[in-house]
C-alpha cells in the first residue's frame, strides 16, 4: 500500500453509501439535538428498527414500498413511546430512556426467541431483502470503474446505492433547511434555548418536542435501511458505538447546520481510513498487527474529537459568534 | 419621556371606592382568585383567600423574601399547580390550564431570571412572541406561501416594538450578547408581540443597572396608557411608589394588606411583616 492507494481509499469514503447512510441518520439527530436540544442517546435503535421493519417485510413478500412504510411506522411508534413519558421532564431523562430503549431493541432482535423473525444474532442476510431494491437499478450488473474507483453496478455497495443514498441525503438536507428556517423551526430553536420561555409565549412545547423526536427518528430509520443495503441486517452493528459515532460526526460537522452532518460523516469515515492506512505504512507489523489497527484508528479519532470539542466545540461549520454566548 | 411621570387617569380613579384592606373587591376585575393554597410538604407557601386585580391599572405585588409572591405568580400563570383553589381571567377559568393555554388566553408573563433565547437573534426572539403564526404548524411549515405574508407583518410589528424599546440597533445581534437590562427590555417587548391583555412582570428591575431603570419604568407606564393591565412583583419600594396604582402586600403566603402606594407602607401589619413585630421593643426587656 502506498500513498496513491491511500488517497484512492480515502476518496472512496467521501462518496461511499455508508457515509451517506450515516449522514442521513445524523440529519435525523440534527432535528433532535441541533434544532430542539433533545438528547437522543439511542439513535441506533431507530436505525435498527428501520432495518428490521424493511428487511422483514420484504423477506415476507411485502414489497419495497410496504417495507419502507413499515420502517417509518415502527420508528414513529418508537418515538411516540419514548417521548410520551419523558418529554414532559427535563432533557437528561430522555437520554437515559433512549439509550436503554435502543439496547432493548438490539437485545430483543438478537435473542434466540426471536430467531424466526429477526434471525437472532446472525441477523437477516442481504439476499433475503435486497433484491427488490437492486432490481430497480438502471446500471448494468457488473463491475464499473469510474476514475480510480471500481464498484459493482447494482449489487450491495453499488453505484446504484451511491446514487440513491446521496439523493436521499440531498432531499433530507433540503427538508432540514426548509423546516429549520420556517416558523416551526423557530419554535424548536426556542425550545432548545429555554422551554419555559416558549411556554410563556403560548406554544405547546410538548407537542413540538414530540414532532421533532418522531421526525428525526423516522429519518434515522431511513438511514438504517440505506446502511443495510450496503451490508446486512445485523443487530450488533447498531449498538451504542453507532449512536456515539453519529453524535461524533454531527458535532464534528457542526450541529444545527444544514451541511454539518454531511461534512462530518465524510470526514469521520475518511479519517478512519487514513489513520488505518498510515499506521499500516509506518508502524511495523511487530508493534501492531492488522487486527489492532482498527481499534487504534478509532482511538485516535476519539482523541481528535476530544480536541475538537475542547478547541472548536461549535464544529467545523458552526458559528463562532453563537458559541461565544455560553449556550 | 420626561412628561410621562406618574400616569394620571383621565376618568375617575378606579380605586377611589376600593377599601384599603386585604382581598378588597375591585370595580372592573380582570383576575379573580379564591382559596389558592400551595403546600410543599409541611410548608404552606401560598394561602390566598381572595384576590382581585383591577383592569387597566398597574398593580404591584410586594412582600418580604419568602412571602410566596413568585410562587403565587407561577400559580396564576400555570407554571405551578395549587392543591386547592379556583382562579379566573376575564371570567375564563384558568384552573388546570397549561402555561401555553394561559398565555394564549391573553395573560403573558416574564421571568425573574430573564429568559432571553440566547442563541437566537433579537428579531427572531420577537417573532417567536407572535401568536397565531400559521407557519408554526408542521404541515404548513413546508409551504412558505402560506406564512410568508404573515411573517412580514409580524416582522414589521416586531420592528416597531424594537424601536419603542430602543433595541432596533440590536436587531440582528444574538440575544445572548445583550446586557442584563436590555434582555429585560427584550423579554418585555417579546411578551407584547401577542397583544396580551395583561402582562405579569416577575421582578422587572432585578439586575438592571440604574441608567436603564428609568426607561423600564416609562415602558411599564406606557403599557398602561395603551390599555394593557400590569401586575408585577417587586422588591424595590422606590419603583413601586413611582409607577403602581395599587399595592398588594404578601407575607408568609397570605395577602396581609392592600392600598394605594402612598399609604400602604404605613399599615402596621405591613411594617410588622417587613421589620418583625418586635422591631421597636428593646431586646433586654423581652427577657
Give the count of structural domains of chain B.
2
Please name the CATH architecture of the largest domain in chain B: 3-Layer(aba) Sandwich
Q: What Rg of chain A, in angstroms, do the CA atoms define?
A: 20 Å
| Quaternary structure annotation | heterodimer
Report strand order across the widest sheet of chain B: 6-7-8-3-9-10
| Major sheet of chain A | 2 strands, antiparallel
Protein structure class of chain A = mainly alpha
Q: Please provide the count of β strands of chain B.
A: 10
Query: If you consult CATH, what is the topology of chain A?
Result: ABC transporter involved in vitamin B12 uptake, BtuC
CATH class of chain A: Mainly Alpha
For the termini of chain A, the CA-CA separation is: 46 Å
Question: What name is given to the CATH topology of the largest domain in chain B?
Answer: Rossmann fold
Binned, the helix content of chain B reads 25-40%
Question: Total strand count of chain A, please?
Answer: 2
Average predicted local confidence, pLDDT of chain B: 88
GO molecular function (chain B): ATP binding
Domain ABC transporter (chain B): 31-277
Organism (chain B): Demequina zhanjiangensis
Keywords (chain B): ATP-binding, Nucleotide-binding, Transport
